[in-house]
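To: structure desk
From: M.T.
Subject: fold request, one chain
Message: Could you run this one when you get a chance? Sequence is below, nothing fancy, just the single chain.
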Amino acid sequence: MKIAIASGLVVSALAVGAFVSYSWADEPAAQDVSPIYGVSIPEGYRDWKFIAPAQEAPPLDELRAVLGNDIAIDAYKKGTLPFPDGSILVKLAYKRKQSTEFAPATVPGAPTTVQVMVKDSKKYPDSHGWGFGRFVNGKPVDVKQHETCLACHVGNVVDHDYVFTRYAP
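Reply: Done. Structure tokens follow.
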């Protein structure tokens, strides 16, 4: 009888622990959201559709791939500007590396950042409807780096709803 009760307590404790860890896993931890905007890395983004590649010149010397959720992809295909609320763009950045299999080729090396833009005109009215997040190793970078996001987009791509990336044919 004591063994059955002890076993039941262990199973109950495991079940409660699984429920608690599951519910915490569904919500991004406070430290996993960007300062200023509160943007997190979207779940399942690696399965989103490809929008375009990009290359950043030295000193960054990076290869980049931009992905979008279905709302963003639809807007790109239809040429909809401004982007509708719910559009999310994710940029994956990697150090450029020479291919070991084919010397003239450049391939992705070490990952550097995941950058996220979320369109929500009600939540982000002071940043033209966009929220920004820049992450290194899954953690948001500091406030100072996030303060540069909006200024760069406003200074260069006002005519494209503050988005640099164009849809690659």
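Reply (cont.): Confidence is low (pLDDT under 50) at residues 1-28. Let me know if you need anything else for the meeting.
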